[in-house]
Design brief:
Elements lengths: L1 H38 L7 H27 L4 H18 L2 H7 L6 H28 L1
Helix pairs in contact: 1-2, 1-3, 2-3, 2-5, 3-5
């Protein structure tokens, strides 16, 4: 019984640690580069612009929020590790050259609405892969 309790504590620690890594990585690679031009304008944004910016930022961060909730609630480590690696990889793929990409094409800002849909799709596929891994390990 004592060994099971230690395993549960270490699993919970790993889940919280992986969730914090995914959230921190998402903040630094997605949210901060988008916030920097908005806050650096030096102009006071009116209500509509600030609400649009807030909705876009929440929509960008939605896959990370979904991952964190699932990572804390699940008991299987496959549902923590595989989606974390997939989400971090996808975020890096889409946002590693964000400044160059957004400066090269003014219409590329529409991708800020499309990319979270791709991230959620990648997250769903990674959960499917984790499900298959759990089923294979069970056999």
């Amino acid at each position: 019984m004592h060994n099971s309790n230690n395993t549960q504590k270490s699993n919970m620690t790993l889940r919280v640690f992986m969730s914090s890594i995914v959230i921190t990585f998402g903040l630094y690679i997605m949210i901060f580069p988008v916030l920097k031009p908005i806050l650096g304008l030096g102009q006071i944004m009116d209500g509509t612009k600030s609400w649009v910016a807030l909705v876009i930022l929440i929509f960008l961060f939605l896959p990370n929020i979904i991952y964190s909730i699932v990572a804390i609630k699940t008991k299987k480590l496959e549902y923590v590790i595989i989606p974390a690696l997939a989400l971090i990889g996808a975020e890096y793929y889409f946002f590693h050259n964000y400044q160059t990409w957004i400066a090269s094409n003014a219409n590329a800002a529409i991708a800020l609405v499309i990319i979270p849909i791709y991230l959620m799709l990648i997250l769903a596929i990674s959960y499917g892969i984790a499900f298959v891994v759990v089923k294979i390990r069970r056999v």
